[in-house]
Amino acid sequence: MISINNLIVEFGGFTLFKDVTFIVNSRDRIGLVGKNGAGKSTLLKIFAGKQEATKGTVSIPNEVKIGYLPQQMKHEDGRTVIEEALTAFEEVIELEKEIANINNEIGERTDYESDDYMKLINRLAEKNDRFHMMGGENIQAEAERTLLGLGFLRSDFSRQTNEFSGGWRMRIELVKILLRRPDVFLLDEPTNHLDIESIQWLEDFLKTYPGAVVLVSHDRAFLDNITNRTVEISVGKIYDYKVSYSQYVALHAERREQQMKAYLNQQKMIKDTEDFIERFRYKATKSVQVQSRIKQLEKVDRIEIDEVDNSKLNLKFPPAPRSGDLVCEVKDLSKSYGDHLVLKDLEFVIERGEKLAFVGKNGEGKSTLVKVLMGELDHTGVCKIGHNVKIGYFAQNQAMLLDGEKTVFDTIDDVAVGDVRTKIRDILGAFMFGGEDIDKKVKVLSGGERSRLAMIRLLLEPVNLLVLDEPTNHLDMKSKDVLKEALLKFDGTVIVVSHDREFLDGLSSKVYEFANQTIKEHLGGIYSFLQNKKMDSMRELDRKQQIAREEKVEVAPSENKLNYLERKEMSKQISKLERTVAKSEEMIAEYEEKIEEIEALLADPKNQDQETFKAYDEAKKKLEDEMSNWENINEELEALILEKGE
Questions:
Q1: For the whole prediction, is pTM greater than 0.85?
Q2: Coiled-coil annotation: which residues (predicted)?
Q3: Radius of gyration of the chain (CA)
């Protein structure tokens, strides 16, 4: 589908890609990996036609549709969520307008026997065929289904897009790409603004999608669940592994070991040759051998080793000053934004040394509670921070708050005190800011580089409560692993808001689930939480929350009452779905009967005209769509019955 041949990309004398060649096949699930700055995003831009290579060829057939989701994008205002989603069907909507115009013209014509009239009829048939082939009747349902899958509520559909945060607007763009059904998905960090439920929905979608997927992600679980091929970019070259990410890691270690042996052997050979040349350079009797060795050195294809592999991200938090046993106490805490209630009557305590994970759908109040704990938002109820608690806070937008005009060095020098000031270069080097990097201005850094820089600032003061709101966004795999290791060794208290399952696995001792304006405590780690909820994915949780919000179910304090209301609501939903299934079966029977009637007509050659064939195709298409609809409704019905325990 996509082939690149001898690709070279250069920036101001620096070569990013050197004679790169490979092919993306129709069913590939490719994960692009490599250090920050290796060229992953650049390669996606080249595939998408957003950037040109210096040399080489990129071949994409004209009929191949590309769906590209960049990390950063511009958004347009002036539409509702559903209207913006439907822009994905521009061709279908335009076809619908053309069909309406042709029908109007036909209604005004009386020259039924003329050639022009027959051309108009044929044109209408062609447009109708194209419209039905593209699923024109179902675009509204498809848009709604995809929006719901990525976490939107039906009540969101009529809201203006500019009412949503950047993360939610990125989801709208993702919805539009999914609806266009491209032949190749190019996704650059698609999970950065998604919650666990939406990530798992996207995984399910991409795993069964008939096209190709090329993605950049630092979410190890996401890569493992989707990819069957891993392409590593290292020092301008690519290494193609026909395996998922975890298998690639093992194979990469083997290749790295072999590469290092070859590199060391070559370095020894080069040194021995240079020593020989230097020793006998001025001896006439050795001049032929010296010249031969010089030519030999010139022909050597030097082995390069990625410098990232030679560095170590040494992340170590200072010893935490001892706090009181009670780090935080919350009683009857509620928070609203105007009339919108986000958190209601929360009550919990956080004890010294606990490592907590805040999880749940975006918009359920995780970041809001973090800001309340930090004293950034007013609220009702009690939020009491314990004795001698010193908080270190990493916010989602922490990296964006850095002064873009300052250099990397000055950004750290401004907050460093005492002996730390003499070690700034070493600290920056440990975070992979080496050489000229420390003199770069913050505004030219990538998202990952800014996040690492913001993390360094957090490390410079000894704290005993770390509050980290999405700390892994834009961090590469290695940085996340080292950060996680440091957090495991940290002797203070940790609160982590994250959607990264692999990062949370083994880190948190307790999970706080945010839903329906409150929180629920689960002992154990993230995968234990998911398993205890009896979910292979989080779709069931999404449905419960959606039902509770849209039907405005009141949550009563009594556990028995709560169970009763939940079961009552489920019974209503089951009855509604059963009626929908019955109606769908009636429609299927009608379509099947219609098809039989048309087939009987077509048995007679006299009836084999274009209109009859068109009616036959339309009936078959409607039957297929209704069968698909019937299957989806039945799956939802079975899941509800199973959940209710009937």
A1: no
A2: 567-643
A3: 30
